[in-house]
Amino acid sequence: MMYQNGRRRGLIKPITRRGTASRDPFSSCTDTSAPFDHDDKAHQGRRRFSSKQTKKILLIGLVASCLLIASSWGRGGEGGSDSMICGRTIGINLSRHKTWHTPYTPSLLSDPTNDKGGILLKNGDGFGGGLNHISCFFHAFDLSYDKKAPIYITKDAKWLWQILLPLFPFSGTTAADEKWAMLEKILGVTILESEHTAKLSGLEFKTPATNELFYYHSSDLTSSTIRNHRDTILRQLFQQSAGVCSGVSAAAKIQQTSVQKAKYTVMHLSPRATGGYLGKLNAATGRDNSAALEMTPNYIISILKPLGLLQNDVFVVGEHQNDELEVTRLFQDPDLLKVMKKIQVDQNNQVYLALLADAYLGNPADVTSMWIARMRYALGMKNTFILTEPKNMNGEGVWVSSVDDKTYLDMYNRDKLGMWMG
């Protein structure tokens, strides 16, 4: 049985936009062939421009068209560059793989051999809050690899789309069919109308629950392969997120707080409930992570002072950001009270505020915080502190990241992170 782009040929038709030619946002504008035959002698007498002039005009038009298409897709948000998101510079160029510090890996399943069906992600109960479902989603690819079966997703799988689409919004002018087609290409999956459509296909599907996916891990995939795949998918989602900086979104909030160009730090205060997982995390990592969870003034200062960020704004995000008992010790600390800032934004805006910060202090026991850190690493953002360790520098105790900014394999190591693995 033949497969094509992760689906069986002839069984389920890919989603395309009706009434228009298919547009591929990933194709590069490199076609410089002219649509006219300038050597046709029958038309030479009527020609008002020379062949050289005509080619020049066509080339200018082609370049303008490419620029228009690129801007219409809004790569990297509305920052005007694939090296920027919402006006802030990131560490890589999203459209140039050569600038990536991990290799382009769009799929784990290069040659499916299961001709009976696949993995179906459908509507059902969610598992936990925050970005837990991002873990569920990516772990489905690991299951797909182990079972050698492609992934199918229904449009009504709310547990996934209600997290993924607001986090990586397309331009408001993108038609629905076009949006689904783009997602199919980025994710390497087949998107179906519903579970009923899947049943009509005659295929056999494994339909794992979200809690099963959250805890799933592959014994065959290496940490580097998993990381490379996650990085590639995330970068492509960021590249096509044209709507992320429009309306009441992250960019607007960043501009309102006057930090679009100014340096700033984001620290993640998580619910006390995450403290219940601290023992398990410590056992998995082999170190005490309580300092990152407690986020004391001394911990924050020891990180920001060597970076020269102690005089810049520090924004508090996380589900516990508005608990006065938790934040009072920070806002009343004499070394922090002038820079500590509260910001009233929803989860997605908190994520982008943290992603684009000059430094991010995260909580490793919080799944959402861990995914923010992974996204920052994928984007090449420096100064991410989530798995930390104490060190003596120039006779002074400081906290530093124990994760290598270029490899960050610990973030995808099951043996070191347990259920917090990405």
For the biggest β-sheet, the strand order reads 11-10-9-12-13
Distance between the termini: 32 Å
**Oligomer classification:** single chain
Fraction of residues in helix: 25-40%
CATH architecture annotation of the largest domain: 3-Layer(aba) Sandwich
CATH class of the largest domain: Alpha Beta
Main structural class = alpha/beta
Main sheet?
5 strands, parallel
Q: In the CATH scheme, what's the topology name of the largest domain?
A: Rossmann fold
Strand content: 5-15%
Q: How many strand units? A: 15
Rounded Rg: 24 Å
Shape: globular
Q: In terms of per-residue confidence, which ranges show pLDDT below 50 for 5 or more consecutive residues?
A: 1-80, 247-252
Number of domains: 2
- Written as H for each helix and E for each strand, in order along the chain, the element string is EEHEEEHEHHEHEHHHEHHHEHEHEHEEEH
Let me know the average pLDDT: 77
Keywords: Membrane, Transmembrane, Transmembrane helix
Summarize the structure.
Helix content is 36%, strand content 13%. By secondary structure, the protein is α/β, with parallel strands linked by helices. Strand 1 (3-4) and strand 2 (7-8) form a beta hairpin.
